[in-house]
Amino acid sequence: MGDSMLGAMAVLMKNFDKYAGKDAEKGSMSKAELSEMLHQEIPGMIGDKKQLDAFFSGLDEDKDGTVSFNEYIVLVGSLMMMLKEMFDQ
Amino acid sequence: MGDSMLGAMAVLMKNFDKYAGKDAEKGSMSKAELSEMLHQEIPGMIGDKKQLDAFFSGLDEDKDGTVSFNEYIVLVGSLMMMLKEMFDQ
Known about the structure:
The structure is a homodimer. Chain A is mostly helical. Chain A has one domain: EF-hand (Recoverin, domain 1). The first copy, chain A, is built from 4 helices and 2 strands. The relative contact order of chain A is 0.11. The first copy, chain A, is globular and about 35 Å long. The first copy, chain A, is 65% helix and 4% strand. The first copy, chain A, has a two-stranded antiparallel sheet with strand order 1-2.
């Protein structure tokens, strides 16, 4: 389903629900859920707990201790800009 | 390829290149390229030229007359937030 623009957006939206839905608070990602997502979806990106803490803190813009859907979208956008820069070099 | 998180991001990155690459300026989207992308990928979103002009002007944050990759990423993020709100209602 993901090969059209809308399909790829749907995959990314479902991906949030998949990991955010693992604990009782289904509308946002805890640090544990973010960690699981990154380890499953982008292996090698996060090394140790210190890196995870710094990364989570950077994403959690409103400092409520969770990553909201909008904060996740900012993550996805940043990752695409980072990948684009890597590929363009 | 698009059903994983990374795969979906790759589809969205390729989608930019597909439409931005239609004229000589391959690193950015002209208004004509944006129009073609929206008509092909999100049929019904843009009705007439006036809507397209307003939409293009909103996206072109640095007012250089083209939509850069980063401006496209802002568009993709905004669309996902809009769709999420629609689905959550």
